[in-house]
């Protein structure tokens, strides 16, 4: 298993898929270390240790390369969510980038609305995103939301719902600034530590649950997803709206 994982790491490395390669190197090294512990043959141990040293050196080089890309604003990672895939709740996507220094968040999504079915209300998606921010480990103080108005009579419900979220966030010491635009099309989320996440479907990539008492209704990690692509970038300076 260790050999196969490290073989995959080298293939990804040669394809310049460094982030994925690094994960495989780390997993492969851990597996080889377990082999070394279980091996009594000193000659084999010597060979394994030499290989481990080589892979560790390469993994460290990749780490430095990735860090430089982040500093230069060139970092890019892409995640493809397949149709009906599960395991992609907001925590899984965003937690890695919500470091303790994050204090300000920008959300651009034209469809933070009341929606048509209560079970698929897009306002609830935004609320769940805000709940994730409240839980930390980041210390968010300000959330900026740029969205578009809902149509017709649903507009008043949309505004009322957002105001309720705003009031609730205030009790946690978080300010929600809401702006509306009729021309917004982009969907992206930015943190003031330089991370930017673009999701093809915005926050609305979860499918409608089969029923109110079906698995995945409450836990979004178990909710099937629509097919979409997530692009993650790191920039030196996060632009402001």
Automatic annotation (TrEMBL):
PANTHER family per record: MIT DOMAIN-CONTAINING PROTEIN 1 (PTHR21222:SF1)
Domain MIT: 1-71
Leader peptide range in chain numbering: none
Alphabetical list of InterPro entries matching this protein: MIT_dom, MIT_dom_sf, MIT_domain_contain_protein1, MITD1_C, MITD1_C_sf, MITD1_N
Entries under Gene3D superfamilies matching the protein: MITD, C-terminal phospholipase D-like domain, Phosphotransferase system, lactose/cellobiose-type IIA subunit
This protein's name: MITD1 protein
Origin organism lineage: Eukaryota, Metazoa, Chordata, Craniata, Vertebrata
